Amino acid sequence: MVPADNAFALLAVFFGLAAIGARLERTRIGQRVSGVMIVIALAMALANLGVIPRSAPTYGVVWQILVPLSIALFLLRADLVSMVVEGGRTLVAFVAGVFGVVAGAWLGALLLDLGPHEAEFAAVFGATYTGGSLNYAAVAEAIGFRDPTALAAGIAIDNVVGLGYLLMVGAVANAALFRRHFGWRSERLHEAADGDAINRRPPSLIDLSIALALAALACASGDAIAAAIGQPSYGILFITAIMVAIATIGRRWLRGLSGEDLVATLFMYLFFAMLGAGADLRALLDAAPALFAYVLVLFAVHIAFVLLAGRLFRLNHAELVIASTACIGGPPIAIAFAVLFGWRRLAVPAVATGILGYVVGNFVGIGLYRGLS
Question: What's the structural domain count of the chain?
Fold first, then answer.
């Protein structure tokens, strides 16, 4: 009903979904599920009912412009020393999650018959769940996996089941039972990185202008550096480094700004609406049941490893969520969760572990392929 080339109509739908999600989040049910999960579910329903398209140029604008801006905005108060200290604990959970992905991919291949492309599927799923979908295409190309039907089935499973996993994680991220069992050192997650309370005064036009100017400058500089060294996909790494430098050097001055969190959260709501719109339920139904079961086995083992690490190393619920989402969805997903749940101290660890997943994922995928082929 809404054409893919009608940017204003799509934005009207997405902003409307953000408003609905934010409003329902104040209800008793919304507090349990979270507004962003409501936005994803509604966008998925609208897309699969044919109301909005699954892909559109507007979605590219959200991904390429609004997501980096929201990441940069949220990092305005990132204190490097505190982030390193907190990041060390998140890294432990991330490493455990990677081992869980490898073990789950191997176990699933042993338990299930995936046909002639068993090693290839293990490789691409092992890679994509060690840092995000960026690794899927890279490993498929590296191992020569070019069967269009098999690749389409894998992508469908990755998109929909992976999104389902993120929905589940988002639903339990702040559940009382989860927080109670993994509540160590979680009392300061919502504080600014410098330990000061978040400024509650109403934001001014000057505040928002300065915050957006610094965020846009960091995004432009980071992308330019990444392109100059021939690694354009790693622009987020340089954006993070620039914003951390700005936040660390100017932490006393930036303390007076207000409202950047509100803008960052709005942009992230649009991002999750885009994710929901891109999920293809029909493609999932057409995919092989064995492949579906394979990904479920992989996720189950991954969760077991992450929770075990949480128990052994006394990690809190937020660190486990960020580490797991960094594995499964990559840095944009991980930091989106940090933004939406207000875990300010985990912003840099979310990006750092996700970027590490980009690097490690290719080695994981190729290693699984060689081991199983």
Answer: 1
Structural domain boundaries, residue 168: 64-372
Q: Where are the alpha helices (DSSP H) in 49-195?
A: 57-61, 67-74, 80-111, 118-128, 134-142, 148-172, 176-181
Q: Which residues of 160-184 are buried (b: 16+ CB within 10 A; e: fewer)?
A: bbbbbbbbebbebbbeeebeeebee
pLDDT, tens digit, 9 for 90 and up, residues 77-106? 766 665 566 567 899 999 999 999 999 999
Inter-residue contact 182 to 315 (CB < 8 Å):
yes
- How far is Cα 151 from Cα 169, in angstroms, rounded to an integer? 26
For the entire predicted model, the pTM comes to 0.71
Residue 267 forms part of a structural domain: yes
Residues 189-220: tens digit of each pLDDT:
665 544 444 445 788 899 999 999 999 999 99
pLDDT tens string 275-292: 788 876 666 566 668 888
Residue 76 lies in a domain: yes
- Name the burial class of residue 289, with classes exposed (0-12), middle (13-18) and buried (19+) by CB atoms within 10 angstroms of its CB: exposed
